[in-house]
Amino acid sequence: MAGSPSLFEHELPPGLHYRDDFITEAEERALLDAIAGIVFSDFEMRGVVARRRVAFFGQSYDRMTAGPFPSFLLPLRASVARWAGVEADAFAMALINEYRPGSPIGWHRDAPQYDIVAGISLLSPCRMKFRPYRSAASTVLPPARRSATHDIVLARRSAYLMTRESRTAYEHHIPPVTDLRYSVTFRTLR
Fold first, then answer.
1. Alpha carbon distances (Å) from 119 to 68, 76, 97
2. Confidence of residue 2 (pLDDT cuts 50, 70, 90)
3. What pLDDT digit, counting tens, does each position of 101-159 carry?
4. Which of 9, 98, 153, 185 is 20 to 30 Å apart from 39, CA to CA?
5. What is the CB-side half-sphere exposure of residue 114 using CA atoms within 13 A?
6. Do residues 151 and 10 make contact, with C-beta atoms less than 8 angstroms apart?
7. What gap in Å lies between CA 35 and CA 159, rounded to an integer?
8. Cα→Cα distances 35→41, 66, 143, Å
9. Cβ neighbours, 10 Å, residue 50
10. For residue range 24-68, what is the model confidence (pLDDT) as tens digits?
């Protein structure tokens, strides 16, 4: 499941690492076949139901146990861990997202209890945009409209690692996708 580094026209946020072809077509097909048997749930954050559906394994956002990692995710977690330079068990949470056409993720930083965030794109590409994080306490009234400062296409079968500043000093979002897409994300605890 190794890939080679990819070159981009735009500078990426510090601490963001990206690899095209992190998994093979056969590995993607096996993951998609296994994901077809997963039961997804609606995702609610701060009282709002997102358009994407999710399945949690290991530890969920509320620090509750969500059920064991399914065996089909263990080889992928091991590959991501080798790339990140950590033990596979350091990834305490796995999240599979199902993005139906038109599904976005709004601007956010991942929950503070997590450190490294690793993601693998399946079935179709998407854009991921970044902008410097600004806490609600630091906003000017009225809040000024902010734009993305970094933009990357997450290709099918690619992977990314968000570490250091890309995790703490930036927030990110995914605009609405045009085609069905799945992502598998793993998170280490701080």
1. 19, 10, 10
2. very low
3. 999 988 888 887 889 999 999 999 999 999 998 876 655 555 566 788 889 999 999 99
4. 153
5. 26
6. yes
7. 17
8. 13, 16, 41
9. 16
10. 999 999 999 999 999 998 766 656 656 789 999 998 666 566 789
Cα atoms in the Cβ-side hemisphere of radius 13 Å centred on 18: 21
The answer to whether the beta carbons of residues 157 and 22 sit under 8 Å apart is yes
Cis omega (within 30 of 0) for bond into 142: yes
Q: What is the dihedral of CA 124, 125, 127, 128, to 10 degrees?
A: 90
pTM: 0.85
Which residue's entry shows tokens 């897409």? 181
Structure token digits, residue 103: 């599904």
Residue with tokens 């394994």: 57
User: How is residue 92 written in tokens?
Assistant: 């305490």
- Helix residue ranges, H only, the chain: 25-35, 74-84, 164-168
For the chain, what is the radius of gyration of the CA atoms? 16
Residues 21-40: b if buried by 16+ CB within 10 A, e if exposed? bbbeeebbeebeeebeeeee
